[in-house]
Amino acid sequence: MTPAILEITILGSGTSTGIPVIGCDCPVCSSTDPRNRRTRCSALLKWQGRNILIDTSPDLRLQALREKIRHIDAVLYTHSHADHMHGIDDLRSFNLHSGKPIPVYGSSGTMERVRNTFSYIFNELDQPGYIPQLNLYSVETPFELFDLRITPIPLYHGHLQVLGYRCGQIAYLTDCNLIPDSSLALLKDLELLVLDGLRFKPHKTHFNIEEAVAMAQKIGARQTWLTHLSHEVDHPRHDSQLPAGIHLAYDGQQFTSFLP
Ligand SMILES: [Zn+2]
Ligand SMILES: [Zn+2]
Ligand SMILES: [Zn+2]
């Protein structure tokens, strides 16, 4: 039997401001290296012709145009912060093409925040007409999506519990500064780990690069890509300084994994 292909594309590798930061003239924000131009944090999983989007960043429209994404078959939410969710309205375009609602998955807390923050989508009295068609599902434990097993990975982002996701031998863990032992147990035998590594200075709710490298070495994936990067991080200068197997992510980066 030929192995099934699971592919991940980094749609956005940037922190909440995006890089360049509005009004900033620092060397990274002024850089012409495309790897230093970072849209807000998001990724796309491709599996058996299906596109599974992780988060709807405020840059979703630009990311979809850049990567020529013509359909979204499901959305996985990590958490409800604006930089991961506020592109939700752009899901309308995919509804228009498919004529179908999009299933959306996340923790019960995140699903509640979607309903409250974007009430115009769900309140029938308040609908302006052209709105996203979404079906929300709360997930806490592994589930099947298009015959692909998806394992939610509970993480801490400061006091907030968020979810990472594991599919096959790929795990995507953004916005975190603590991974409980029970979640580390779900992260064995990875080919690719995508991990939060905001910047060099410490931060209250994100791993900095030093902490992310230590965590990457503890998890021991064959490759780790650090994402959610700030303008402290200069790709050409800092990527080569990381230990073997650990890299800075960049927008458009892709990885292919083969499932038995
Ligand atoms: Zn974020
Ligand atoms: Zn800057
Ligand atoms: Zn966040």
Describe this structure in words.
Helix content is 20%, strand content 30%. The longest helix is centred in the C-terminal third of the chain and has 11 residues, at 209-219. By secondary structure, the chain is an alpha/beta fold. The protein binds zinc ion (3 copies). One zinc ion binds next to α2.
The Rg value, from CA coordinates, equals 18 Å
Number of helices: 8
Strand content: 25-35%
User: Could you give the order of strands across the largest sheet?
Assistant: 6-5-4-3-2-1-14
Kindly state the mean pLDDT as a whole number? 96
Distance between the termini: 8 Å
Question: Into which percent range does the helicity of residues fall?
Answer: 10-25%
Small-molecule components bound: zinc ion
Structural class call reads: alpha/beta
Q: Biggest β-sheet, characterized? A: 7 strands, mixed
Uncertain residue segments: none
Shape: globular
Q: Tell me how many strands there are.
A: 14
Q: What is the H/E string? A: EEEHEHHEHHEEEEEHEHEHEE
